[in-house]
Specification:
Largest sheet of chain A: 6 strands, mixed, barrel
Number of helices of chain A: 15
Strand order of the largest sheet of chain A: 2-3-8-5-7-6
Helix content of chain A: 40-55%
Order of helices and strands of chain A: HHEHEEHEHEHEEHEHEHEHHHHHH
Number of helices of chain B: 7
Structural class of chain A: alpha+beta
Largest interface: A-B, 23 and 29 residues
Number of strands of chain A: 10
Distance between the termini of chain B: 19 Å
Radius of gyration of chain B: 17 Å
Radius of gyration of chain A: 33 Å
Oligomer: heterodimer
Number of strands of chain B: 10
Order of helices and strands of chain B: EEEHEEHEHHHEHEHEE
Shape of chain B: globular
Strand order of the largest sheet of chain B: 6-7-8-3-9-10
Structural class of chain B: alpha/beta
Shape of chain A: elongated
């Protein structure tokens, strides 16, 4: 043990209370950094998860509308006048007629982990005199489950029942409530083309996304095709999930040239989700860094006090042959030790707080407990920031200590 | 040790010349007392000789080395090796044990192993009759003992020069006598040069030589 280390050690251990206060300020800062980031990340992940219970990473659909194709060729000569008013579409193809082909194309891409097709339409449900508009999804049950893990969100009934009965329907919990329909009840469905069908409620689903739960109903994709009188390969949209949802735009761009329909990444229609995530992250980092900086002030304060208290000792050390560098080392080492102890305790405390919060019951939407995440990077960054701040907060008083003029102090 | 043409000014609150063209030489093994009224510049002179105060005009050489113009870090090293200090107040590090206090300058110098240093420190503590207290905190022993521990600390690196700023100023007559005898012995037996600023006339009278300062000048003998 070098003599400087020895002196630092004696300084640290002779004022245990001060040492504990300094350590605690670092511990608090680091644990709050970890907790804030784990919590915000958990919220972000949960939010994303809820979003993706009813939304795919990439959606392929037939984008209708826009201006109709040109009815006439451009003016061929100067003496021709073209006048077309009140242009309307007179005929177009709805949906995707050859969905199987699109599915195969998507499955070839290695980034894509799940593909499913849906037949969606706006319909009315009637139960007695109650009449509610709804989005009816015809789903391919097996693929739908693989993609959205829908079984997990079923509050009642069995989703596979849709495959077994052509008149089965699964309602969102909000929709069922509005319709006053329970499992086993019959509800009347009317399509926009005037087709009516009686369906039996065989299950309820709650994804956690309120708007979806209030309007969505699911039937078998074949029943949906029948309702619209469409062929067996018909779908309104083909959906795909990829390995990392953040790459959706890149994957969508690579697919676009091969698919004749509109190919859309989830971010394009949902920028508010992205911005909410970024805002939460920014807030978490700002708050937690502020706490760490406050902890830095704590160390600065305590080290400055120590230096002021030990002015005479510093003068003596200088008189007996210690130079400025030794003095900086002696005091800097103390704050680094404080930083390290505080940091490690902070990591443990941060983990404990996160763990406890993870177990606080929180039953809103599809949550059971508060959402948190456990990411090693949060712990590493907490320690890195903690050490940087401790170093700076310790260096300033240490530098001041090294500048003490022994003559001034010793002569009194 | 030699000092040539030393001039020193204080600038606060107004510029004032404390030392006026002071020159002298001190031989190895001499026991010198610097006396004078307060304000005569005797302490100032001592701190210049100690190399801690570098703000002066003139030239100081110690043990054959010109210390004027060396950097602060070089001076620290020089002090560590060649100069021992005894102050009016003991100025021990209160949180360290008596033994640690004595050992620190040698540990800093790093020329000997820890065991050798410890043996040497124990030897000095025995010589100065504070043996048996070495594990106590420096703040827990009596004033006379503290001053003797401070002397042991000054001696640990076997410096060529020992400087005292009123080394007995805070001691009763009995302890003063003990400290004086130790200095006497060191100068005589080990050939260490001793320079002490003192108010104590009896102490001064028994030294080899007295340098009397009046108004920033050395009184001619």
């Amino acid at each position: 043990m070098s003599v400087n280390t020895k002196i630092s050690w004696v300084h640290l251990t002779s004022k245990v209370r001060q040492l504990i206060v300094a350590v605690l300020s670092v511990t608090f800062g680091i644990s709050m950094y970890i907790f804030m980031n784990s919590f915000m990340n958990g919220v972000n992940s949960a939010q994303t998860e809820i979003t993706f219970t009813s939304m795919a990473h990439i959606k392929v659909y037939n984008d209708l509308g826009g201006s109709p194709s040109k009815a006439f060729l451009l003016n061929s000569s100067d003496d021709t006048i073209r006048n077309v008013s009140n242009v309307k579409h007179i005929n177009y193809t709805e949906g995707i007629r050859n969905a199987d082909e699109v599915k195969q194309l998507l499955q070839k891409n290695t980034e894509i982990v799940a593909v499913t097709e849906q037949v969606n339409q706006n319909v009315f449900f009637r139960n007695g005199v109650t009449k509610i508009s709804s989005t009816l999804s015809g789903i391919d049950v097996t693929n739908e489950i693989q993609m959205f893990n829908s079984v997990q969100y079923m509050t009642e009934g069995d989703l596979y029942e849709l495959d077994r009965r052509s008149d089965a329907v699964v309602l969102g919990t909000g929709l069922a409530e509005k319709l006053n329909a329970a499992v086993g009840d019959n509800v009347m469905l009317s399509t926009s083309d005037g087709v009516n069908k009686i369906l039996k409620v065989i299950g309820l689903i709650q994804t956690g996304s309120g708007n979806v739960d209030k309007s969505r109903a699911m039937i078998s994709i074949n029943t949906a095709r029948q309702l619209l009188s469409k062929n067996k390969s018909y779908a309104t949209e083909v959906l795909a999930n990829i390995k990392n949802y953040n790459d959706a735009q890149i994957v969508a761009n690579t697919l676009r040239p091969y698919i004749s329909y509109k190919t859309e990444a989830w971010q394009e229609g949902n920028e508010q989700l992205e911005s909410a995530n970024i805002l939460r992250d920014t807030m978490a980092i700002t708050v937690s860094l502020t706490i760490l900086i406050v902890a830095g002030f704590g160390i600065y304060n305590i080290m400055s006090m120590t230096v002021n208290e030990k002015m005479r000792e510093i003068a003596i050390l200088k008189a007996i042959g210690f130079d400025g560098k030794d003095i900086v080392r002696i005091f800097l080492m103390q704050s680094i030790v404080i930083g390290f102890i505080g940091g490690f305790v902070g990591l443990l405390l941060g983990f404990s707080i996160t763990f406890i919060v993870d177990h606080i019951p929180f039953s809103i939407a599809s949550f059971d407990t508060l959402p948190v995440s456990y990411r090693p990077i949060d712990y590493i960054m907490a320690m890195v920031f903690g050490m940087i701040i401790t170093f700076i907060a310790g260096y300033i008083p240490a530098k001041k200590a090294s500048k003490v003029d022994p003559v001034e102090i010793l002569r009194g | 040790m030699s000092a040539k043409g030393i001039n020193k000014y204080f600038h606060e609150p107004e510029t004032f010349q404390v030392l006026k063209d002071v020159s002298f030489e001190i031989d190895r093994g001499e026991f010198v007392a610097i006396v004078g009224k307060s304000g005569s510049g005797k302490s100032t002179l001592l701190y210049l000789l100690s190399t801690m105060d570098t703000d002066y005009e003139g030239n100081i050489a110690i043990n054959g080395t010109t210390v004027t113009g060396l950097t602060q870090n070089q001076l620290s090293r020089f002090r560590n090796e060649h100069i021992g200090f005894v102050f009016q107040f003991h100025y021990l590090l209160p949180e360290f044990s008596v033994l640690d206090n004595v050992m620190l300058p040698a540990l800093k110098l790093g020329k000997k192993s820890k065991e050798e240093i410890e043996a040497k420190a124990m030897e000095l503590l025995t010589l100065l009759d504070v043996k048996g207290h070495e594990t106590k905190k420096a703040s827990k022993i009596s004033g006379g003992q503290q001053q003797r521990v401070a002397i042991a600390r000054a001696l640990i690196n076997e410096p060529a020069i020992i400087m005292g700023d009123e080394p007995t100023g805070n001691l009763d007559s009995k302890n003063t006598a003990i400290v004086f005898d130790i200095f006497r012995q060191l100068a005589k037996e080990r050939g260490q040069t001793i320079i002490a600023v003192t108010h104590d006339e009896e102490f001064a009278a028994n030294c080899d030589r007295i340098i009397e300062m009046v108004d920033g000048k050395i009184m001619p003998l």
